[in-house]
Amino acid sequence: MLNIRSATPADVPQILAFIRDLAAYEREPDAVHATEADLHRDGFGPAPRFHCLIADRDNVPAGFVLYFHNYSTWRGHHGIHVEDLFVRPEHRGRGIGKALLTRVAAIAVEEGCHRLQWDVLEWNTPAIGFYEQMGATMMKEWRTMRINREGLAAFAAQGKQTGIEVPEIQ
Questions:
Q1: Which of 21, 40, 78, 129 has the least C-beta neighbours within 10 A?
Q2: pLDDT in tens, 23-34
Q3: Closest residue by Cα to residue 96 from 86, 81, 104, 108
């Protein structure tokens, strides 16, 4: 029996285990720096920065989806971005991933969102096929740009170095 539920603070160790399993699947096993304390702070504090659903199959954690809200200036409306979706290999092929994404889609509809989006690695053809079967379309003309923590402070400081005055936000 499949049960999809909102994660609780007690699930944080399991969420972190899912994140590590996903990183290993995506060929980046050493890339996870998140800690249980990070997940507690950002997912279960007074102003949660993400939401998480857990899929239990026969009372065993089988997968999860972690998402947060975003905003489209072009649409003038909020949406949901799925950061992570993962189903353990032994539970795949049973509709768990689809059930998790369908539940997030229902939440988006309930909240009046205009968009549900996520990223997928270009080599992950099984996931791409899975998403396309559900009606998702790949946005081929858009590319994700990122400045990681290591370069963020240096980039932010460039304004001072170039003489550009960056005023403080009031």
A1: 129
A2: 999 999 999 999
A3: 86
